[in-house]
Specification:
A hairpin with a 5-residue loop joins β7 (168-173) and β8 (179-187). It contains eight helices and 13 strands. It has two domains: 2-88, Ubiquitin-like (UB roll), CATH 3.10.20.70; 96-127 and 134-342, Glutamine synthetase/guanido kinase, catalytic domain (Creatine Kinase, Chain A, domain 2, 2-Layer Sandwich). The radius of gyration is 23 Å and the shape is globular. The chain has 356 residues and is α+β, with helices and mostly antiparallel strands. The chain has helices at 90-100, 151-164, 189-208, 243-254, 257-261, 268-271, 299-304, 320-345; strands at residues 2-10, 19-27, 36-39, 52-62, 71-79, 107-117, 168-173, 179-187, 213-215, 230-235, 286-288, 295-297, 309-311.
Length: 356
Amino acid sequence: MAYQAEYIWLDGTEPTPLLRSKTKILHDEVSEPPIWGFDGSSTNQATGDKSDCVLRPVFHCHDPIRGGRNMLVMCEVLLASNMRPHATNTRAKAARIEKKYAHDDMWFGLEQEYTMLRLDGTPLGFPEGGGLPAPQGPYYCGVGSGRIMGRDIVEEHTQACIDAGLSISGTNPEVMPGQWEFQIGPLGPTAVGDQMHVARWLLHRIAEDYDVVISLAAKPEKGDWNGAGCHTNFSTVAMREGYDAIIDACEAIGANYMELVKNYGDGIEERLTGKHETAPWNKFSYGVSDRGSSIRIPWQVEKDGKGYAEDRRPNANMDPYVVAAMITETVCSAADAKADKTTKKAPAKKVAAKKK
C-alpha cells in the first residue's frame, strides 16, 4: 500500500533560509524514508550545470494533516559529488558539537514568536486600509474579540504538533496584535532544531488554508511595537544540579557575546534596542527575573538554586541549529576549561608511610 512522505529541508536563501518541501510516495516494504534529491539550482544551493543535491532524512514523524501512515521527514542537505554536508547544512556542525560535549547533556527549550499577516503584509489586528490598533497592553495572553486574532490557526497548529508527536510544551498570545508564540523542548541541540523546523513547516502549511502569512521577521511592524524573538532556554546537567554552573554559563556567554549575537538572526539591531523587553544588541547583561537583560535567570531558578537560563536575544528567524551549537560550545568549553584548571590546582594527596 502506498503512502506519502513530505521531505522538508532548509534552502540557501540569504540572510534567512526558507523551508522547502516535496512529496515522495513510499510503499509498505519501505521501513525508513530513503535519501532523495532535488534541484539545488532552484533553491540557491547549486548552479545549473551541477544542480543535484541530496536530501538525507534525520527525523521523521506522523503527518497530522494527511493522517494515516503518511509522514513528515526533516532532512539535511548533502553534496551529490561526495555525500558531505552542503555549505548550507548547519545541522552537521550542531551534531558534531553535540557529540563532543555529550557528557554535559545540554538541553534546549525554544520559545518561537511569530506574527500573522494578511496577504497585503499588515498584521492581523491592525485596521485594514491603514491606521493603528490600540496600544500594546491588553493583547499579551489576552482573550476576547478585538484583543485576540488568529486563534483558530493556533489551535489547529497546536493539535497538529501534538498529533505529530513533537515536544510542544505551550502556546500563548504575545504583546503585539496578531503575534503568538509556541514552545518546543526540552530537547538536545540537534533534536530541538529538527522538531522546531517541522513545527514551523506545519504552521506555514496550516496558515495557507486561511490565506494568512506567517512572518518570522524580527521587527515586523516599525514603531512602538514589540519585535519577535525566539528566546532560548538552555541547561547543562551541571546547571540542573547547581546555581554556580548557571552563573558560570552566563559569564561564559558574556565573554563572547558579540560573536553569538551576530549569529542570532537577521534584523538583530532593529529588535534589540533596549526597549520592548530587550537589552541593547551591543551590550551584555544577565539578571534574575529581568526581561530587559540579555540573559534572564528565572526567579524560581534562583530560589531552587538550580535549573536553566534564558538567552533572550535570538530572533524569531534564527537558525536553531546555529544557536544551539554556539551556546553549547561556548558554555561547555568554558566549563571543561574550568574543570581542567581546578584539577591541575588540586594538591597531590599525601600517602602515609607504612610502618615496618
